[in-house]
C-alpha cells in the first residue's frame, strides 16, 4: 500500500462498509473496540484454506496436512515478528485473550508447580486495577478463592488515569496484571513504570494488550512485561483466536492449562510428559484457519503500517474530542486530551440512558456504537454511573462518520428534551 495513508482506499478492502441498512442508511461502524471488521484479504485467505488446503495440523503426513501445518506455523512467525517476540516459540495460540489470561492465572497456586514464582497462598498478593475488563478481574478473584491470597488494585483518578499510589505493590506481590490500554477510557497506561515497580519486588507482570496491539506499534521489550495477552478479532482477524506471549523460561516453568493431543511428549497409563513450548499449551485440534486468518490480518496491518494507523486514529480522536465537546450535557468519561489515550471515547448524556442513545443512533442514523458497562462494571461504579455510550475508531473510520455520530447525538437530545 501507499506510504501515504489513504482511508478511502483502505475502506474499499472492507466489504461490510459499503453496506446499506434498512431505509438506505449507510453503515457507520464505530464499535471496533468491541470487534473489528475484516478486510477481503483475511476473508479470502480463510476461504481458500478451507476450500483447498484444510487438514489437521501436526498429525497428518500427507500433502494437505503439511500445507495446513506450514500455514498454521507461518501465522505464528508473523505474530511473533509483529510484536517483536524474541522467539516464535514464545507465541501461544489460545481461543481469545480471556483464555490467555486464565491460562496464566491457572499457573499460580497450581499444586503441580513448585516454582516459587508461581506458588501462591495466604499472605501473597495479586495486583490489578480498577479499570480492568472482567477478563482480567474474574480469573484473579477465582484464584484468591482457591488459594487464600489477597487481591489488591490500583485506583483510577477523576481524569481516568491509573492512580499509581505507593503501597499497592509490596514485597508480598507475586503478579501485577493490568491493561495496556483501557477498553472504556481509552487511557494508555504507563506500563513500563508499573513493570519497574513490580520487578523491584520480584513480581511478574502480565499485560492485557487487547486494545493496544491492534492500534499502536508494540515492542514487547519496551513494555517490560513478562507475559502479554491479546486477541485476533479486534485486529482485523477472526474470532476464536487469541495470543499469549511469555518469556521462554517462564513458559517452560508453567504447567499446561489443558490436557490432550499434541501437548504431550509421551503418555503411559499412569503418567505423561509434555511437549516443549508452545505446543505444551495447545491441546487438541487448535483454531487452525482462525490462526491463519490472524496471520493474514497481520500481513494487512503491516502493509498499511502501524505507525500510519496510529497517526490516523490520533487525528480521528482529536477531531472527535472537539466535536463531542460541542454536544450539550455530554460528558466524556476519561482523558479529555490526546496525551496518553487511544481512539476509544466513552460518554454519558445527562438524563438519557445509554441504551436509548445507542438505539436511536442505530435505528435512525445507522451509527453502530456500544452501550453498557463494556465488561468493566467496577470502573463504571467508580464513576458512579451504570453505563456509558462508547465510540471506538480504527483505520477504516473517517471524520465524516464522526460527523454522523454528532448529528445523531444532537437528534437524541431533541427526542428527549
Question: Could you please describe the fold and organization of this structure?
Answer:
37% of the residues lie in helices and 17% in strands. It is of the alpha/beta class and 417 residues long. It folds into two domains: 7-30 and 305-416, Alpha-Beta Complex (Aspartate Aminotransferase, domain 1), CATH 3.90.1150.10; 45-302, Aspartate Aminotransferase, domain 2 (3-Layer(aba) Sandwich). Helix 6 (191-200) links the parallel strand 6 (173-179) and strand 7 (204-208). Helix 2 (40-53) runs antiparallel to helix 9 (288-304) and helix 10 packs parallel to helix 13 (399-416). The chain is globular.
Name the features.
417 residues, Aspartate Aminotransferase, domain 1, 2 domains, 4-stranded antiparallel beta sheet, 16 strands, PyrdxlP-dep_Trfase, Cys_dSase_SufS, transferase, pyridoxal phosphate binding
